[in-house]
Design brief:
The protein is of the alpha/beta class. It has a domain of 248 residues: 3-Layer(aba) Sandwich (Rossmann fold), CATH 3.40.50. The chain has 19 helices and 20 strands.
């Protein structure tokens, strides 16, 4: 049997931005065969994104590249004249904002297909529609006759996948294509991608920072660190402690595990900080008060306790949180925070009460990019507390040290920080504000395994030291279990299940709850043959 032909071969490739800079890639070698799946797994700074740009031939000109690149046995220099050596489709993450906000999604994606296939726009439009129709779970074409800001992130991810498939590629370069989505849509998109790969026979190179995605794709995993290959192999081998490199084992250990065991920590039993009574998130106008109290959402959150609101996008998690924060006033039900009924307060009084709350989110635009690092942490101290300049500086320096940002100069603008450091800065800002309640919205989304583990520890330490109650918004039960004690599962703006998280994980009562749990359960590695495990 003949060996499968190589589509791309990188041999001892190094990339440096300047002659004296640390290399982005350091003597990196990789081969990709026809129809093969290769997952580049590593931290944000591992260099995997540069591998994709190098193969796609979109690397910035100022980079110094050494080594050789071969496309179908032909050296890269021989095809540099402009002719594309392969039919390559790029599959980005929707959070990378690959589209212009000022034009319809359909027109932008059809233009990409037309250019790459060298066909008229009408033919490209037909190809896009056909590709959408083949993807089980994708929205209809009409959804994309809108601008990107009018379409949800999951729908955009489906549109980007359909665009890549419509190009009938020989090689798909997926750049964290599902990394910023919730577990359930990420799983659905990954299944659709692998189904299309079987149909079309293309090779797939997927840059990932999430181990679950690497397992779902069922290909060869290349673990990268600082521009070098640490090791490579199947998911089964790398998940085996007896076979994997120490760095890989550390990476696998950082992934939060679901457990039906009762946690050692105890749930807070103090007086109630938050009381929600008869809240109806679906009502357009006031109803009979007794019926609302009976049918609406009712719960208590005690001081220092942590409750997770778990559900898919649109389930009502954020609508409930907005009501708790006093940002919206539902016509049915009451929210009582620190013994104060928000429904009887003026906007000014609610704003004052909101000073005792803090908000931490996984959105990278949550902080003002024009503010400096120091001013971002100082702001709540100046706004809420009458402290001397020295006391403000002391609180600020202590918080920045706790979250690991003390090495930055205070004048560093927020816009210059990487995503993980922006999350840590949010935690530092929350620490100094001494809140009674912290609302935490998908804090780990889009981060690599190591960054997620560190942020979980910071948030856990924040709750333990400052003692706020946590209201955690997530679609990921592993996040819920790491940060909270109890959970309410929401669907269609109703609570369908509630209780201690370990009990829900052990015996979910609803199919929707089971689907959420299954979406974050890691692939179960099959046992390795004895010879491979020992080798």
């Amino acid at each position: 049997m003949s060996e499968t032909a190589k589509l791309v071969e990188l041999n001892e490739v190094s990339i440096a931005r300047t002659a004296r800079a640390e290399p982005v890639l350091d003597r990196f070698s990789l081969s990709i065969a026809e129809g093969e799946t290769v997952v580049l797994l590593g931290e944000r700074s591992s260099g995997k994104d540069s591998v994709l740009r190098l193969i796609e031939r979109t690397l910035a000109r100022e980079n110094e590249v050494t080594g050789t690149i071969v496309y179908r046995g032909q050296p890269e220099k021989a095809v540099r004249s402009g002719k594309r050596p392969l039919r390559v489709a790029h599959l980005p993450s929707p959070s990378a904002r690959p589209l212009s906000p000022d034009a319809k999604v359909s027109s932008q994606l059809v233009r990409v297909i037309a250019r790459n296939l060298s066909v008229p726009r009408a033919s490209a439009r037909a190809e896009f529609k056909a590709a959408l129709g083949r993807l089980a779970g994708a929205p209809p074409f009409e959804t994309f006759e809108n601008k990107p800001g009018e379409i949800d992130t999951v729908s955009l991810a489906w549109a980007l996948l359909a665009t890549a498939m419509a190009q009938t590629p020989e090689l798909v370069l997926a750049d964290h294509a599902t990394g910023d989505l919730g577990p359930t849509p990420a799983r659905a998109l990954t299944r659709a991608l692998t189904a299309e790969q079987k149909r079309l026979g293309f090779a797939l190179l997927y840059a990932a920072n999430q181990i679950n995605v690497a397992g779902w794709l069922d290909g060869r995993i290349v673990v990268m660190r600082a521009g070098r290959v640490v090791e490579e192999g199947s998911y089964e081998r790398l998940a085996s402690p007896s076979a994997a490199h120490s760095y890989t084992m550390t990476m696998f250990r950082t992934v939060a595990k679901l457990s039906g065991e009762k946690p050692l920590r105890t749930i807070a039993r103090g007086e109630a900080l938050l009381r929600v009574q008869g809240l109806d998130l679906t009502a357009k106008a006031a109803k009979d008060e007794r019926r609302a109290m009976r049918e609406g959402i009712t719960f208590e959150l005690r001081r220092g306790a942590a409750l997770a609101l778990v559900g898919e996008e649109g389930s009502g998690r954020r609508a409930l949180a907005r009501a708790v924060l006093g940002l919206d006033r539902p016509p049915v039900g009451r929210v009582v925070l620190d013994a104060v009924d928000l429904s009887v307060l003026s906007e000014t009084m609610i704003a004052r009460l909101r000073r005792r709350m803090t908000f931490i989110t996984g959105a990278d635009d949550a902080l003002d990019p024009r503010m400096t690092l120091w001013d971002t942490v100082d702001e709540p101290l100046r706004a809420h507390l009458k402290l001397s300049r020295d006391m403000v500086a002391g609180h600020r320096e202590s918080a920045l040290k706790r979250v690991g940002l003390a090495s930055y100069h205070g004048s560093t603008p927020v816009s210059a920080l990487p995503a993980f450091d922006k999350r840590r800065l949010q935690v530092a800002r929350a620490m100094v504000s001494a809140p009674l309640l912290a609302v935490i919205d998908e804090p780990l989304r889009g981060l690599d395994a190591f960054a997620q583990a560190l942020l979980r520890e910071l948030l856990t330490d924040f709750r333990a030291q400052e003692g706020p109650a946590f209201l955690v918004i997530t679609s990921d039960f592993s996040v819920a279990q790491a940060l909270a004690d109890e959970a309410m599962v929401l669907k269609d703006r109703h609570v369908i299940e509630r209780g201690p998280i370990h009990e829900i994980l052990r015996a979910p009562k609803e199919a929707a709850t089971r689907a959420l749990i299954d979406a974050v359960a890691p692939p179960a590695p099959t046992p390795l043959p004895k010879a491979e495990a020992e080798g």
